[in-house]
Predict the structure of Isoprenylcysteine carboxyl methyltransferase.
Amino acid sequence: MDIKDVISLILFFTFVISYFMKLVLLSRRNRISANVLGKGNKPPATVIVETAVKISSFCWAILWFLNSLGIGNYRSISFARPVGWMGVIVAGIGLSVFIAAMLYMKTSWRIGIDKSTETSLVTNGIYRYSRNPAFTGFDLMFIGFMMMYPNLLALIVGVCNLLFFHLLIIQEERHLKHTFGETYNRYARDTPRYLWFI
Protein backbone atom coordinates (compact mmCIF):
# COMPACT_ATOMS: atom_id res chain seq x y z
CA MET A 1 0.00 0.00 0.00
CA ASP A 2 1.63 3.24 -1.13
CA ILE A 3 0.85 6.84 -0.17
CA LYS A 4 -1.59 7.21 -3.09
CA ASP A 5 -3.58 4.25 -1.77
CA VAL A 6 -3.61 5.73 1.73
CA ILE A 7 -4.97 9.04 0.39
CA SER A 8 -7.47 7.11 -1.73
CA LEU A 9 -8.63 5.24 1.38
CA ILE A 10 -9.01 8.54 3.28
CA LEU A 11 -11.10 9.94 0.41
CA PHE A 12 -13.21 6.78 0.41
CA PHE A 13 -13.92 6.93 4.15
CA THR A 14 -14.60 10.67 3.96
CA PHE A 15 -17.20 9.95 1.28
CA VAL A 16 -18.80 7.08 3.21
CA ILE A 17 -18.92 8.99 6.51
CA SER A 18 -20.33 12.19 4.98
CA TYR A 19 -22.92 10.23 2.98
CA PHE A 20 -24.22 8.24 5.93
CA MET A 21 -23.97 11.17 8.32
CA LYS A 22 -26.30 13.15 6.06
CA LEU A 23 -28.78 10.24 6.02
CA VAL A 24 -28.69 9.91 9.80
CA LEU A 25 -29.03 13.66 10.43
CA LEU A 26 -32.01 13.94 8.09
CA SER A 27 -33.64 10.96 9.78
CA ARG A 28 -33.04 12.00 13.40
CA ARG A 29 -33.44 15.77 13.17
CA ASN A 30 -36.09 16.05 10.47
CA ARG A 31 -37.69 12.58 10.40
CA ILE A 32 -36.89 12.34 6.68
CA SER A 33 -36.11 9.01 5.08
CA ALA A 34 -33.78 10.33 2.39
CA ASN A 35 -32.83 7.02 0.76
CA VAL A 36 -35.67 6.39 -1.68
CA LEU A 37 -33.74 4.58 -4.42
CA GLY A 38 -36.11 2.02 -5.93
CA LYS A 39 -38.75 2.69 -3.28
CA GLY A 40 -42.24 4.13 -3.51
CA ASN A 41 -44.81 4.41 -6.27
CA LYS A 42 -42.70 5.22 -9.33
CA PRO A 43 -42.84 4.41 -13.03
CA PRO A 44 -41.09 1.12 -13.94
CA ALA A 45 -38.37 2.96 -15.91
CA THR A 46 -37.47 4.99 -12.81
CA VAL A 47 -37.37 1.88 -10.61
CA ILE A 48 -35.08 0.11 -13.12
CA VAL A 49 -32.69 3.08 -13.34
CA GLU A 50 -32.64 3.57 -9.56
CA THR A 51 -31.97 -0.14 -8.99
CA ALA A 52 -29.13 -0.03 -11.54
CA VAL A 53 -27.67 3.00 -9.72
CA LYS A 54 -27.94 1.22 -6.37
CA ILE A 55 -26.15 -1.92 -7.63
CA SER A 56 -23.47 -0.15 -9.70
CA SER A 57 -22.62 2.40 -7.00
CA PHE A 58 -22.36 -0.39 -4.40
CA CYS A 59 -19.95 -2.26 -6.71
CA TRP A 60 -17.96 0.96 -7.20
CA ALA A 61 -17.68 1.54 -3.44
CA ILE A 62 -16.54 -2.04 -2.79
CA LEU A 63 -13.98 -1.88 -5.61
CA TRP A 64 -12.68 1.51 -4.46
CA PHE A 65 -12.18 0.14 -0.94
CA LEU A 66 -10.53 -3.10 -2.12
CA ASN A 67 -8.29 -1.37 -4.67
CA SER A 68 -7.17 1.14 -2.01
CA LEU A 69 -6.06 -1.82 0.09
CA GLY A 70 -4.21 -3.27 -2.91
CA ILE A 71 -6.67 -6.13 -3.36
CA GLY A 72 -7.47 -6.81 -7.02
CA ASN A 73 -5.48 -3.79 -8.18
CA TYR A 74 -3.30 -4.94 -11.05
CA ARG A 75 -1.17 -2.10 -12.38
CA SER A 76 0.18 -3.48 -15.60
CA ILE A 77 -0.16 -0.17 -17.44
CA SER A 78 3.10 1.81 -17.58
CA PHE A 79 1.44 5.23 -17.19
CA ALA A 80 -0.54 4.12 -14.12
CA ARG A 81 1.53 6.04 -11.53
CA PRO A 82 1.14 9.65 -12.82
CA VAL A 83 -2.40 8.98 -13.99
CA GLY A 84 -3.16 7.49 -10.57
CA TRP A 85 -2.07 10.70 -8.84
CA MET A 86 -4.20 12.77 -11.23
CA GLY A 87 -7.05 10.43 -10.32
CA VAL A 88 -6.56 11.21 -6.62
CA ILE A 89 -6.89 14.92 -7.41
CA VAL A 90 -9.99 14.40 -9.59
CA ALA A 91 -11.62 12.17 -6.95
CA GLY A 92 -10.79 14.73 -4.25
CA ILE A 93 -12.39 17.52 -6.26
CA GLY A 94 -15.43 15.30 -6.88
CA LEU A 95 -15.75 14.53 -3.19
CA SER A 96 -15.58 18.24 -2.33
CA VAL A 97 -18.27 19.07 -4.90
CA PHE A 98 -20.45 16.23 -3.60
CA ILE A 99 -20.18 17.36 0.03
CA ALA A 100 -20.89 20.99 -0.91
CA ALA A 101 -23.97 19.84 -2.84
CA MET A 102 -25.25 17.87 0.16
CA LEU A 103 -24.75 20.85 2.45
CA TYR A 104 -26.56 23.30 0.14
CA MET A 105 -29.50 20.92 -0.34
CA LYS A 106 -30.16 20.93 3.41
CA THR A 107 -33.41 18.99 4.03
CA SER A 108 -34.22 18.67 0.31
CA TRP A 109 -31.40 16.17 -0.27
CA ARG A 110 -32.57 12.73 -1.39
CA ILE A 111 -31.04 9.58 -2.80
CA GLY A 112 -33.42 8.81 -5.64
CA ILE A 113 -36.63 10.46 -6.71
CA ASP A 114 -38.92 11.25 -3.79
CA LYS A 115 -42.56 11.58 -4.78
CA SER A 116 -43.89 11.24 -1.25
CA THR A 117 -42.53 14.33 0.54
CA GLU A 118 -42.42 17.98 -0.41
CA THR A 119 -39.03 19.51 -1.12
CA SER A 120 -37.92 22.92 -2.32
CA LEU A 121 -35.98 23.68 -5.48
CA VAL A 122 -32.46 24.67 -4.45
CA THR A 123 -30.84 27.14 -6.87
CA ASN A 124 -28.29 28.95 -4.69
CA GLY A 125 -24.67 28.28 -3.76
CA ILE A 126 -23.10 25.54 -5.87
CA TYR A 127 -26.50 25.00 -7.53
CA ARG A 128 -26.03 28.32 -9.38
CA TYR A 129 -23.31 26.63 -11.46
CA SER A 130 -24.77 23.17 -11.91
CA ARG A 131 -28.27 21.71 -11.70
CA ASN A 132 -26.72 18.45 -10.51
CA PRO A 133 -23.59 19.16 -8.49
CA ALA A 134 -23.96 16.02 -6.35
CA PHE A 135 -24.08 13.90 -9.52
CA THR A 136 -21.20 15.94 -10.98
CA GLY A 137 -19.25 15.16 -7.81
CA PHE A 138 -20.07 11.46 -8.20
CA ASP A 139 -18.98 11.55 -11.86
CA LEU A 140 -15.66 13.13 -10.91
CA MET A 141 -15.18 10.46 -8.23
CA PHE A 142 -15.96 7.72 -10.80
CA ILE A 143 -13.46 9.22 -13.26
CA GLY A 144 -10.87 9.67 -10.50
CA PHE A 145 -11.40 6.06 -9.42
CA MET A 146 -10.80 4.79 -12.97
CA MET A 147 -7.63 6.90 -13.16
CA MET A 148 -6.35 5.77 -9.75
CA TYR A 149 -6.89 2.10 -10.56
CA PRO A 150 -6.68 1.65 -14.34
CA ASN A 151 -7.79 -1.94 -14.65
CA LEU A 152 -10.58 -3.49 -16.71
CA LEU A 153 -12.98 -4.07 -13.81
CA ALA A 154 -12.60 -0.48 -12.56
CA LEU A 155 -13.20 0.77 -16.11
CA ILE A 156 -16.37 -1.31 -16.55
CA VAL A 157 -17.80 -0.31 -13.14
CA GLY A 158 -16.85 3.34 -13.62
CA VAL A 159 -18.41 3.61 -17.08
CA CYS A 160 -21.59 1.80 -15.91
CA ASN A 161 -21.91 4.28 -13.05
CA LEU A 162 -21.45 7.27 -15.36
CA LEU A 163 -24.18 5.90 -17.63
CA PHE A 164 -26.66 4.90 -14.90
CA PHE A 165 -26.24 8.19 -13.01
CA HIS A 166 -26.87 10.11 -16.25
CA LEU A 167 -30.07 8.11 -16.79
CA LEU A 168 -31.10 8.91 -13.21
CA ILE A 169 -30.52 12.62 -13.88
CA ILE A 170 -32.87 12.41 -16.89
CA GLN A 171 -35.54 10.77 -14.68
CA GLU A 172 -35.02 13.33 -11.93
CA GLU A 173 -35.29 16.25 -14.36
CA ARG A 174 -38.66 14.95 -15.56
CA HIS A 175 -39.80 14.78 -11.94
CA LEU A 176 -38.58 18.32 -11.22
CA LYS A 177 -40.30 19.71 -14.35
CA HIS A 178 -43.53 18.08 -13.25
CA THR A 179 -43.15 19.27 -9.64
CA PHE A 180 -41.89 22.84 -10.13
CA GLY A 181 -43.13 23.63 -13.67
CA GLU A 182 -41.94 26.90 -15.20
CA THR A 183 -39.74 27.72 -12.20
CA TYR A 184 -37.64 24.64 -12.96
CA ASN A 185 -37.73 25.30 -16.72
CA ARG A 186 -36.26 28.79 -16.16
CA TYR A 187 -33.62 27.37 -13.84
CA ALA A 188 -32.74 24.66 -16.39
CA ARG A 189 -32.39 27.26 -19.17
CA ASP A 190 -30.00 29.36 -17.07
CA THR A 191 -27.97 26.59 -15.38
CA PRO A 192 -26.03 23.76 -17.05
CA ARG A 193 -26.84 20.16 -16.24
CA TYR A 194 -23.30 19.40 -15.15
CA LEU A 195 -20.82 22.28 -15.26
CA TRP A 196 -20.33 25.37 -17.41
CA PHE A 197 -21.02 24.13 -20.95
CA ILE A 198 -22.74 20.77 -20.41
About this structure: The chain has a mean pLDDT of 89. DSSP finds six helices and no strands in the chain. The first helix runs from residue 3 to 30. The two ends are 37 Å apart (CA to CA).
